[in-house]
Amino acid sequence: MKTTLLALLLCLLWPGLLRAQQKPAAKKAPATTVKFDPKQRPKNLTDEQLLDLVQRQTFRYFWDFGHPVSGMARERSNVAYDYGSEVVTTGGTGFGIMAIIVAAERKWIPREEAAARIYKIVRFLEKSDSFHGVYPHWLNGATGKVIRFSQKDDGGDLVETSFLFEGLICARQYFTGESATERDLRNHILWMWEGVEWNWHTQGGQNVLYWHWSPNNGWSMNHQIHGWNECLITYVLAASSPKYAIDKKVYDQGWATGDYFKNGKEFYQTKLPLGFDYGGPLFFSHYTFLGLDPRGLKDQYADYWQQNQAHTRINYAYCVANPKQYKGYGPNSWGLTASDSYQGYAAHSPTEDLGVISPTAALSAMPYAPKESMAALKHFYFDLGDQIWSEYGFVDGFSEHHNWYAKSHLAIDQGPIVGMIENHRTGLLWRLFMSSPDVQRGLGKLGFEGAPVKK
Length: 455
Description:
Layout: H1 3-12, H2 14-19, H3 47-63, E1 87-89, H4 90-105, H5 111-127, E2 138-140, E3 146-147, E4 156-157, H6 158-174, H7 180-194, E5 212-213, H8 232-240, H9 248-255, E6 266-267, E7 270-271, H10 304-321, E8 338-341, E9 344-347, H11 359-363, H12 370-383, H13 385-388, E10 389-390, E11 393-394, E12 398-399, E13 404-405, H14 411-425, H15 428-434, H16 437-446
Antiparallel strand pairs: 1-2, 2-3, 4-5, 6-7, 8-9, 10-11, 12-13
Domain Glycoamylase-like: 222-437
Signal peptide: 1-20
Pfam family, one: Glycoamylase
């Protein structure tokens, strides 16, 4: 990839590409006491049974491996960045909350236990470091103190906070019972939600949101949030805030700008409305859309269902064409997105292809390409399962070409597998998130149309 594009990706994909500079160590964090044997996995499964198994096994990352003090999602299953298993992730916890909701709905765990776990997380967060109501990327899961993500990233991270509240809003809409736990959970989520000062991140009233603010470093990172990438949810929630909302002009003049917002070109006979050439990593169409329902969602810039389908089709077609002739690529083994690789963490895409397939890419694309995603799921499980199936679902990445198979799992990759497969199957998380009156008001303010709450 050209140096200029690498620099641009470093700017737009800040969290993922920053991780690429910090290569995971081989040491494992605390694991289950009974050694898991992937060769003993069930083999004679129907499609529905396989979907059930993959969702449930992946959910275990958040339930069994959640931090014992805070209940939050650990950043990853292996020790890295010179930190240990105390590192919990704000955005990954939001995805984990959505996975817990799925588990409760499917009765893998009792509803009251699900509510109690999320309430534990919420109460911990209320006592943890936050900055104008905005949480840092990483926290210490035992103390609630910020763990800096980089030298100056030691304050609020607006994008990670938006992923967290994507999950919390779903939880508030799901746990509507009259038990003391569910009532308290709803109230505490509301207080946290009302306290996020989204408009503070316009840096004094500019018509753009800024990613980071720190009490030690102020706005010195100076990273504006421009589209197209994973951050649409940040602008939607900022417009939806009951007390600290942004105006539409912040969306139009901040988000919907830049050389890599509108595209309109064709790749592999598919027109791509928005984003980088060839679409970029697939998580662009996952993170925001775990809650935000893209079906029929339109504004003046795009039809977001068409956008996400196009992005997925291009990623799939690239892997099938396999211009670099990597071993293992094909119609049943595809999907490029940010994940671990044999070179460390990398934002894999058609323009940054290292020969690494990330299972979360194809599996979280299930709503957009169900046939192709199911073919990948079967291949990953039945054919490659000895290498990539684990106690927490599929490992984070693999490369048959380089004979490399990750041992790690990341919260931000495991969570979308559970949530997006569920949205494909039942639309559960889409219904919950879209049922929020605040979200509906925010979407209306930004000019979105055709996004009714679906039954």
